[in-house]
């Protein structure tokens, strides 16, 4: 269970990001399950920023009592001492072995407990010097990327703490789940078939098939699963034609036993898993290479460009070309250089 502690003036996007990230991971991956609880800290009135909003939650600080993970977003009063009871609640969480994460200026709140003394931590890049000055015993990472030191995790406030959530998902369920979760979170693509000159589909911005694809499980094997050797073999041999008999033979199981095990552990049949793995390989090649669709079709095992387009559209709701263009535009838009001399960012 993940408890998000909302202190007065928390940036709205930092407050909502954990629910979006962890719910996306659970929705698209069969073995993943999370419960996220938003807890209002003492004196909480609403979020900060240009469009503040309030929240109605039944949980206060007592909501942290049984949490496996406690997350601290930033808040407007981060330079002052934490509200009454917050330090004690965080010390109690740490004492029982809970994992604690801080986003942006939420690291100031965690540092105020003394739990970060002698440990590495990150905060918003524009506040690294201030954190080091106010809490000289903290080893402040100036890069602001997700930093882990024992049970304490911290990250800059860019993208509302999504980086920190993805870091925790990686620890819990592996890198492949985190990669697919990030893709689902950020690639909000419009369905514009590449052969129609960008004319929107008659079915609207997302067809029924695309919507159905959103609910489909991704090809992820739970860590420690007995299926890991055979799914790793499948991933290594995507460029070869693979049949159900081939997979069953490699797993040394009958087809019925193999299918039951795949459904139980991945939510997919072996051939559904294989197809989703091929689509995921195609996605990564589109993201990270300049290979033409002909080569991507061959490397992913989808055969021909027409077959790649057909299955890619059904699985993602968009075409390979649109996907590549949108991904690169996304990366370009999210990798701007920081300018410390500009006015301070929100917490």
From TrEMBL:
GO terms for molecular function: DNA-binding transcription factor activity; sequence-specific DNA binding. Residues 228-326 form the HTH araC/xylS-type domain. Signal peptide: none annotated. Residues 191-212 are annotated as: Disordered. It comes from the Bacteria. The keyword Transcription applies. Keywords: DNA-binding, Transcription, Transcription regulation. PANTHER family: ARAC-FAMILY TRANSCRIPTIONAL REGULATOR, HTH-TYPE TRANSCRIPTIONAL REGULATOR RV1931C. This is Transcriptional regulator. It comes from Streptomyces silvensis.
């Amino acid at each position: 269970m993940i408890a998000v502690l909302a202190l007065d003036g928390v940036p709205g996007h930092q407050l909502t990001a954990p629910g979006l990230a962890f719910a996306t991971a659970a929705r698209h991956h069969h073995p993943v399950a999370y419960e996220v609880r938003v807890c209002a800290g003492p004196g909480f009135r609403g979020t900060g920023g240009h469009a503040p909003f309030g929240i109605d939650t039944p949980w206060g600080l007592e909501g942290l009592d049984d949490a496996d993970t406690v997350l601290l977003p930033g808040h407007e009063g981060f330079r002052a001492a934490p509200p009454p009871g917050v330090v004690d609640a965080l010390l109690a969480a740490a004492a029982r072995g809970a994992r604690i994460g801080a986003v942006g200026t939420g690291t100031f709140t965690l540092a105020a407990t003394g739990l970060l003394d002698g440990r590495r931590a990150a905060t918003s890049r524009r506040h690294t010097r201030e954190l080091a000055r106010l809490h000289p015993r903290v080893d402040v990472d100036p890069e602001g990327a997700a930093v882990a030191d024992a049970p304490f995790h911290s990250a800059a406030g860019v993208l509302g703490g999504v980086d920190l959530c993805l870091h925790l998902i990686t620890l819990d369920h592996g890198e492949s789940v985190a990669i697919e979760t990030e893709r689902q979170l950020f690639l909000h693509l419009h369905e514009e078939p590449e052969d129609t000159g960008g004319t929107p589909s008659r079915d609207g911005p997302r067809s029924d098939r695309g919507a159905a694809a959103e609910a489909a499980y991704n090809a992820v094997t739970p860590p420690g699963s007995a299926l890991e050797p055979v799914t790793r073999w499948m991933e290594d041999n995507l460029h070869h034609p693979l049949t159900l008999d081939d997979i069953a033979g490699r797993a040394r199981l009958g087809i019925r036993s193999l299918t039951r095990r795949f459904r139980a552990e991945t939510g997919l049949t072996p051939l559904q898993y294989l197809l989703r793995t091929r689509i995921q390989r195609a996605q990564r090649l589109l993201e990270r290479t300049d290979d033409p669709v002909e080569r991507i079709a061959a490397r992913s095992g989808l055969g021909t460009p027409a077959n790649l387009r057909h299955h890619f559209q059904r699985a993602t709701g968009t075409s390979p070309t649109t996907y590549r263009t949108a991904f690169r535009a996304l990366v370009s838009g999210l990798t701007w250089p920081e300018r410390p001399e500009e006015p301070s960012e929100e917490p």
